[in-house]
Amino acid sequence: MPQQADCVFCKIVAGQIPSAKVFEDDACIAFLDIGPLADAHLLIVPKEHYERITDMPALEFAAVTLRIPQLARAVMEVSGAEGLNVLQNNGQVSGQAVPHVHIHIIPRRQGDGLGYRWNAGKYPEGKLQQLQRALAGALGT
Amino acid sequence: MPQQADCVFCKIVAGQIPSAKVFEDDACIAFLDIGPLADAHLLIVPKEHYERITDMPALEFAAVTLRIPQLARAVMEVSGAEGLNVLQNNGQVSGQAVPHVHIHIIPRRQGDGLGYRWNAGKYPEGKLQQLQRALAGALGT
């Protein structure tokens, strides 16, 4: 299991730093965020060190995300929240504080002041089709 | 394949409403959001109708998320972004606008004014351990 000596999440995976762990399997661990946005704010972390999901093989990522529905149900039950955000940040510009892939499960309630800054735009004429072609090209679809 | 007659994403899956589709397999489709937060903002949608991830069987969810790394790489390549947020909202309170599970891939750049409202708190004495026990109980771990 590749570990980075200076990575706080690798140290949590290895048990060198304590965490409020609630789940573990071969692919991932889940523990409570100690700087929570809401009670029961959970982190799911692949055991292997990858900085971004774009670095991860598909099956390794799916082995982690496989656990999200059951972990999300437990967070809903324990928090009594009305909803959830599942958030995963890649790169410092995106808000990623620890450069080891992690997925946030964030319980939501009316008036909690959380959520994504939703500043939606509109594509100028032709741009949507241009991006569609470029993405299809990149994906080979 | 369960379809909801009044669901806009079920209609896109069925081809009854056009979309700028870039990927499709047995489990999901991916298309450009027409109200983008950034150029190449992508949506990944399970073909089957579920309102929330907490309603989804683990393997069905993993069959969708399996595609996230390759789709995220294509979005990075085409957008030239510095980072990405992967966001999935459950419930109106969380910002979910269409009640059919969907995953946002949102390209990020310095100064774009996007991102999650990060208003982190701290648990009072004993609360972390109480939540850890409750979650472990809910998960049977």
List the helices and strands and how they pair.
Two copies of one chain form a homodimer.
Chain A: H1 8-13, E1 21-24, E2 28-32, E3 42-46, H2 58-65, H3 68-79, E4 83-90, E5 103-108, H4 127-139
Antiparallel strand pairs in A: 1-2, 2-3, 3-5, 4-5
List keywords for this structure.
141 residues, 4 helices, five-stranded antiparallel beta sheet, alpha+beta, 20% strand, homodimer, 28% helix, 5 strands
Query: From the helix content, strand content and strand pairing of chain A, which structural class follows?
Result: alpha+beta
Count of DSSP strands of chain A: 5
Q: Can you tell me the number of structural domains of chain A? A: 1
Written as H for each helix and E for each strand, in order along the chain, the element string of chain A is: HEEEHHEEH
CATH H-level superfamily of chain A: HIT-like
- Characterize the quaternary organization of these chains: homodimer
Which range best describes the helical content of chain A: under 10%, 10-25%, 25-40%, 40-55%, 55-70% or over 70%?
25-40%
| Main sheet: strands, sense, barrel of chain A | 5 strands, antiparallel
Tell me the distance between the termini of chain A.
33 Å
- Overall pLDDT confidence of chain A: 97
What general form of chain A does the structure show? globular
Strand content of chain A: 15-25%
Q: Summarize this, please?
A:
The structure is a homodimer of 141-residue chains. With 141 residues, the first copy, chain A, is of the alpha+beta class.
